[in-house]
Amino acid sequence: MAIHAPGRRPAFPPIGRLRASPIHGGTRSGLISLNLTPMVDMMTMLVVFLLQSFSADGQIMFVQKDLVMPPADASKPLIDRGPVVTVYDERVFVEGAEIVRAADLDAAESSIKPLVELLTGIRERDEKIHPRDMTKPYEGVVIFQGDEEADFMLVRKTIASLNEAGWAKVNFTTQSAAAAETKPAAE
User: Fold this and answer.
1) Residue 43 in domain
2) What is the pTM of this model?
3) CA distance to 72, 74, 146, 147, 161, per residue, from 90 (Å)
4) pLDDT digit string (tens) for 50-62?
5) Chain centre distance of CA 5
6) In percent, how much of the chain has pLDDT > 70?
7) Which residues touch 55 (CB under 8 Å, ≥6 apart)?
8) Which pLDDT score, from 0 to 100, does residue 68 have?
9) Residue 159 belongs to some domain of the structure
10) Residue 140, domain extent
11) Per-residue H/E/C for the chain
12) Do 86 and 93 form a contact (C-beta atoms < 8 A)?
């Protein structure tokens, strides 16, 4: 292997081009290639996420499959958001997750302890995020939906639990009387 004397070597290619041709060396090409596929994928995922998580027309995200809400003549669309409490099929659900069954409750107690604990935790978490004036009652809203055939005592205990947990504002979901009239009778 022959040994060569070291010569001039540019630190990086533009310097070599500049030395080779001082008129055109060192200028960049006007064509820039930009890969748009990852950006389009990111925007698509963001739009899908926002569409799935945002509901602007007052629809409730957690509705049980066969839940029949009582009809109401005067109803307004839901504006406020909060936890959704459902009484259906002798069970109590919060945000679609079963909390307690009616058979497991003590008849002597006026409230449902697991429900009170869960809703108190939700309220305290919300108060940490949005501090409030402690001289005023909590302004949060809970959305209550009950089946038309739900046991009155279970509904009563659920509402007592909401009040015990500090939720004074309760929105009751109903179906409009016009929608109830157009449904075919169940056989």
Assistant:
1) no
2) 0.60
3) 23, 27, 10, 10, 16
4) 887 765 555 555 5
5) 71
6) 74
7) 61
8) 80
9) yes
10) 110-180
11) CCCCCCCCCCCCHHHHHHHHCCCCCCCCCCCCCCCCHHHHHHHHHHHHHHHHHCCCCCCCCCCCCCCCCCEECCCCCCCCCCCEEEEECCEEEECCEEEEEHHHCCCCCCCCHHHHHHHHHHHHHHHHHCCCCCCCCCCCEEEEEECCCCCHHHHHHHHHHHHHCCCCEEEECCEEHHHHHHCCCCC
12) yes
The count of C-alpha atoms lying within 13 angstroms of the C-alpha of 182, restricted to the half-sphere facing its C-beta, is: 5
How many angstroms separate the most distant Cα atoms in the chain? 101
Q: Which single residue is written with the structure tokens 């009387």?
A: 177
> Rounded distance, CA 64 to CA 150, Å?
13
Which tokens sit at 78?
């839901």
Residue 36, domain member (yes or no): no
Give the span between the Cα atoms of 162 and 182, in whole angstroms: 33
Is 19 domain-assigned? Answer: no
Strand partners, 175: 71
- Count of structural domains within the chain: 1
Residues in the chain: 187
